[in-house]
Amino acid sequence: MSAPLLDVRGLRTVFETRAGTVCAVDGVDVSVHRGECLGIVGESGSGKSVTFASVMGLVKSPGRIEAGTILLDGCDLRGLTPKQMRAVRGKDIAMTMQDALTALNPALTVGEQIAEVFDAHDYTLPRRGSARARAIRDKSAEMLGLVGIPSAESRLRQYPHEFSGGMRQRIMIAIALACRPKLLIADEPTTALDVTIQAQVLELITEIRARLGMSVVLITHDLGVVAEHCDRVMVMYAGQVIEEGPTAEVIAQPQHPYTRGLLASIPRPALRGQPIRPIEGQVPDLIGLPPQCRFYSRCPLHRDACLAPVAMRSAGPNRRVRCILSGEPVE
Amino acid sequence: MSAPPAPALLVPEAPQKAESIFHRNLATFAANRLAMASAVVVVLFVLMAVLAPFVAPHDPNETDLFRRMQPPAWLPGGEWSYALGCDALGRDILSRIIYGARISIFIGTAVILVATSIGILAGLASGYLRGWVDVVISRIVDILLGFPYLIFAIGLMAMMGPGLWNIILALAYKEWVIPCRVVRGETLVTRELEYVEAARALGASRWHIMLREILPNILSPVIVVSTIRMAHVIILEASLSFLGLGVQPPTASWGSMVADGRAFILEAWWVSTFPGLAILLLVLAINVASQGLRDAFDPRFQE
Fold first, then answer.
1. C-alpha A43: how far from its chain's center?
2. Residue ranges of the ABC transporter domain (chain A) (predicted)?
């Protein structure tokens, strides 16, 4: 298999707070292959957004990356200067924000906001003058057309408040895709949208991914979305990856008790009339965690051996799990 | 029977003309009658200042000792060609008020333009960059705010000497802290919003984020504060001129005109009163108009 497009090893991102050091991401390994769609699942605070903010170099003070390597196409992103990193953001990796309703600047027209990306990153455009402006406008209209917004030319002159939520999410995607990035990080692209629009937006991402041959990381807490759109899935819990593998396998045979719990808590028609079975308890406080299994306090199967640190174990080809009850230790 | 009308839902909606928040606010402002009237008064003052050579009935500096302290037209001894009377040197008060408007409005506008530009840059830098930039700028602002405004301006004028440009400098030196504080506060809020984060994720530079992403969104409160402060600056200029530190005679300035008439306020009240009324009217009009602007532009005042 060829080298992955994005290869993150041993990433550790911490936030210094008054109450102590919060380790939001603790030794996470991620690899995203070319043309692949990787789903990242986990509840709020599991570190999925922070992991990819770290990849983008967008972790805000008081947070910082403490350890790990981030390789994009073999280039170490952590070694780049801020200026070089700016050239990568938007060009090689693009990100769509969680809330499409607030992620567009209300004071600028949609056209201006798409144009900014071309202005910053596209070196094939004419240098200056009206030729450049026209080229940018044509490309912007083309992007709106790509994400399925009709009469793009006239809509470029409108402001974000004149668009519906689904339209705004499409515009966000158009902005993110403007420079044909190699990797699109979609951070909960559908949380602010209603179900029918959700499906349309995800279809759109999948379709464009196939057409442009880019890789997509889909951050979500909806396993249904992952099942339908992702090749591989990574489940995160309390700052660690706890299970990883091809989507179909992970959903058919979850190995980690947490993944099983997540799947069991999805309402489904076959179980109509029965109460939903949520996972009992709370995510542990990320300050001063003991070395034991992070899921210990909520795990129905926990035993004394779980009080020792748990490493990732291999559970078949391309599958890894962080539970002593399944898989085999990796050498 | 004609065909039934097509269902309204199927008629494609014509693309609407883009309407920015700014235009909507401007319409709200226009609907406020008192504010509109005040804005008209301000515009009249500006026109009067610009067209002074054509509007003024006499040369403002022409003295006529036979007309010393001639009363306004409606009092015994007055005449309509000198409608508001004459001062101690026999100069036409109406003409001097018209020319004085040039000084007041020019200085007010210039100071606000300079101060707002500096304030926006300093406030954006301090609010967006944070760190030592913020500490340095905020301390300078605190120190300047600690000085009483007039004493600060008097001190600077004493150091630099009187003159039109020196007044503008002396007032702008301290005035920029007001827009700076407003911009800093708004920037602190705006920099945390998702679209700023989104711009960073697209590789936008800091300059770009400050000037293109944040500035357009915080411009409304800055415009409102600047217009309110304009009235303040006009009063300060009048105060400096009243104290003899402003524009030098014989150039007509409302403040120095009030000072001229002070000695004989009992015998010839019109010499001080009319320029005083001019200050009052302009400042009041600017204040009411800017209040209307605030009501229109500040979302907290909208239903």
1. 13
2. 8-263
What residues of B are in contact with residue A86 (Cβ under 8 Å)?
203-205
Sequence-distant (≥ 6) Cβ neighbours of residue A272 within 8 angstroms = none
Helix (H) or strand (E) holding A17: strand A6-17
CB nearest B15 (choices: A86, A151, A172):
A151
In DSSP terms, A12 is beta-bridged to A26, A67
Cis-peptide, bond into residue A82, ω within 30° of zero: no
Name the closest residue on chain A to residue B22, using Cα atoms: A107
Q: Which chain A residues are closer than 8 Å to B194 by Cβ?
A: 97-99, 102-103
Q: Which domains does chain B have, with CATH numbers?
A: 6-10+21-301 (1.10.3720.10)
pTM: 0.76
Instruction: List the structure tokens of A127.
Output: 């240098």
Report the DSSP pairing between strands A93-96 and A183-187: parallel
Interface of A with B in 158-177 (CB under 8 A): 158-159, 161-162, 172, 175-176
Contact predicate B239/B259, CB 8 Å: no
Assign 3-class secondary structure to A243-278: EEEEHHHHHHCCCCHHHHHHHHCCCCHHHCCCCCCC
What was the ipTM of the complex prediction? 0.74
Strand intervals (E) in chain B: none
CA gap B110, B16 in Å, rounded: 39
Taking CB atoms and an 8 Å cutoff, what residues of chain A touch B205? Answer: 86, 120
pLDDT tens figures, B213-227: 888 888 888 888 888
Burial A240-269 (b: 16+ CB within 10 A, else e): bbbbbbbbebbbeebbbbbbbbbeeeeeee
Contact A187, A176 (CB under 8 A): no
